[in-house]
Amino acid sequence: xxxxxxxxxxxxxxxxxxxxxxxxxxxxxxxxxxxxxxxxxxxxxxxxxxxxxxxxxxxxxxxxxxxxxxxxxxxxxxxxxxxxxxxxxxxxxxxxxxxxxxxxxxxxxxxxxxxxxxxxxxxxxxxxxxxxxxxxxxxxxxxxxxxxxxxxxxxxxxxxxxxxxxxxxxxxxxxxxxxxxxxxxxxxxxxxxxxxxxxxxxxxxxxxxxxxxxxxxxxxxxxxxxxxxxxxxxxxxxxxxxxxxxxxxxxxxxxxxxxxxxxxxxxxxxxxxxxxxxxxxxxxxxxxxxxxxxxxxxxxxxxxxxxxxxxxxxxxxxxxxxxxxxxxxxxxxxxxxxxxxxxxxxxxxxxxxxxxxxxxxxxxxxxxxxxxxxxxxxxxxxxxxxxxxxxxxxxxxxxxxxxxxxxxxxxxxxxxxxxxxxxxxx
Length: 426
What we know:
With 426 residues, the chain is α/β, with parallel strands linked by helices. It has helices at residues 4-16, 37-41, 44-53, 57-60, 66-73, 84-97, 108-118, 124-132, 171-181, 188-201, 223-234, 241-262, 293-303, 319-328, 344-357, 373-396, 402-420; strands at residues 20-22, 135-143, 156-161, 207-211, 266-270, 272-273, 286-287, 309-313, 332-335, 363-364.
């Protein structure tokens, strides 16, 4: 049994060079790297902290020029130097741009020049992801209502985002489905055929993904009730909660059938509610849960045994419940530390719990939720350090050998997600 410091140093050295598969991001493949300082300094995790610290709304307004927003926020940066998100920012600025120290009004012009100078490089995404971050594949989010974007398949893979066709099904989302597939949607039969066409259109995607509100329970679909709710929806009627759950459960079932047919995993994001009045824009999201919500989806996990479910969680309250579910259902996996869970104390708590309770192949260790590749790098630095710390503690406590810990790190960061999503080695 090795002292913690020695075990951590050995693991950190190994893990810092390890490969990663990033199974969720919002990167735009047409401009994957930062073009302005605002792309880095005002990433929405940081923007929420700055707003909380008292930055005036007019400075952070999306309607202003990016340069004005970033420059206006700089004087407030000192107020968030204590946060984990700021630590990630520091890693980005120091490691990628060679920028030392905190961001201040006096050194901001120099930082801005460095970011802009690198913004036009054609190899920027590959350099930041592969060479610096060890991220060999990053999942992009493809909106069902738009055309699949051109992207570099050696760096990126697509995930079809589809929740407007489940819990947030509306006349507008049906019109978007119709436009996307070229098929009129006026009946449930039309809806089912349009979903089939949609999966054909996005056949290259390696995952289907959707977020679920705490109020969205799964009930065994009743086709008659679903049809009545569907017709009411088309007429513009307001759906009661029971009607909404009946319709969303039916829609989810149809989507899961197609996921099974196409052999693509289904990503479920849970643990936040939105929009919440007054919460930080543009997300307007707060962690929340309703007892019984996750339990209700066990019915779907059971019904659709041929679908691999991968669940992302944004609140720590449901961590054990979700881990117990994954322990009971072979087709349920757990991934990363979504949004409000991406903080060292929570990462370590959740990861330790999962490692102690689940088979090693049920845990995926990382996704970035990034909008530019620089933030993929910053979050990868954070997660790697916490994976090393948790595994080192397990070595120190006598649970794992150092060699087992190294193998587990590879499982978490690369091997498990690559196998689940069919990502070939490159």
